[in-house]
Amino acid sequence: MATRSGIYLELVELSGHVVATGTWNSTLRANCLYQCAHLAKPGHRCRLLQGSREITPITPLAALDLHSGTCIQVVWLSNSVADRPSRRHAFVAIKADGSVVTWGGAGCVGDSSANAPLLTEGAVQICGNECAFAAIKADGSVVTWGDAGCGGDSSAVAPLLTKGVVKVCGNDNAFAAIKADGSVVTWGDADFGGNSSAVAPLLTDGVVQVCGSHSAFAAIKADGSVVTWGDADCGGNSSAVGLLLTDGVVHVSGNEGAFAAIKADGSVVTWGYAGVGGDSSAVAPLLTEGVVQICGNECAFAAIKADGSVVTWGDADCGGNSLAVAPLLTDGVVQVCGNDNAFAAIKADGSVVTWGDADFGGNSSAVALLLTDDVVQVCGSHSAFAAIKADGSVVTWGDVDCGGDSSAVAALLTEGIVHVCGNRNAFAAIKVDGSVVTWGYAGGGGDFSAVAALLTEGVVQIC
């Protein structure tokens, strides 16, 4: 239903649960709907659909098809890909026809030519670690490439990866795949969790999420228990908090050397290397209830609570201490993103708050006037950030060599950007027409000229 000045809409989950209803001014763009969804489920990413049409944050509300009803479908997305800053030096793009394009990576992960015949169609998800990639195809099989020792060679478990894979998670040098029956298959560096034989009986069924630290994995099972393996010092051994991980866990986030788990009652359990957040005792009274999202950077964690406040712990220099911006983090925060040593938080009004290492983007004063409103997504590289605004423009800050300076492609970033992905050294952005724009260190994917002809249209996902 539309009036001269407003459009009445309902935001509805796939389950039929109504997320929100209301009348929005018809002159607005759909970022206001995204912000409403984020308030209903803080910290969770989503897509908005009207029928088969995707509504991006820059879609004008006046352009919605009111003849197909007032229902906007909310599809919640997994946050696992954003649990840790990427350490990759390459990018992979999936196109609408299911083909895969790779670039960057100094001739290693960015070169998928050995498996090119397997990547011409059917790819639906890509996961990367520091030195390799794994692609899930529509038939549930997995294709891998890159450094053999880091998981680029999955031949040892190939019979287990021919069908039924629904999700792949990577840490720095290994992969873990969840199959439709809830079992887990691992490969890559054994010391990093590529060998899960020590906990194999616990990974035969019921696994619903896997998360990686630098060199370990943590899996949540359907009964809310957690199974860990890999490097003991980086969270592979959770025996110190084992009794707290037997039930009720709903999400796990990892950083360089630790894990943090959210339980159903909103409390948090941490383990792993104490100095990077495995020990949260300093803020324990603030983590007993109400936590809805946790984001890890390399050496610290930031938790969003249901009231929109933020709690941080871990290495103070990496953002574990947020006292300098504490008054700005008491309410209204809907998303937090981390790079290696800093954090950026989006508030419900679309403004951004940053803290941590100034050289890594913890100080955003140079672009502060551009971050006061309308920001709908923030993404990090190793030491910089990129923010998408509701008008489809992009704002960057932080280390210029890692994408903090996008002036070379500024003319291409003034409108139409719908998604940005960062790796260790660069950023890649998808435009509404399916084309790609890149910037940052050329050898790390900032220069895609070698495959430019393949990235002019049809790109739907970048990893």
From TrEMBL:
Domain of life, source organism: Eukaryota
Coiled coil residues, start to end: none
UniProt xrefs under InterPro entries: Gal_Oxase/kelch_b-propeller, Ran_GTPase-activating, RCC1/BLIP-II
Signal peptide as annotated in the record: none
Protein name from the UniProt record: Uncharacterized protein
Source species: Polarella glacialis (Dinoflagellate)
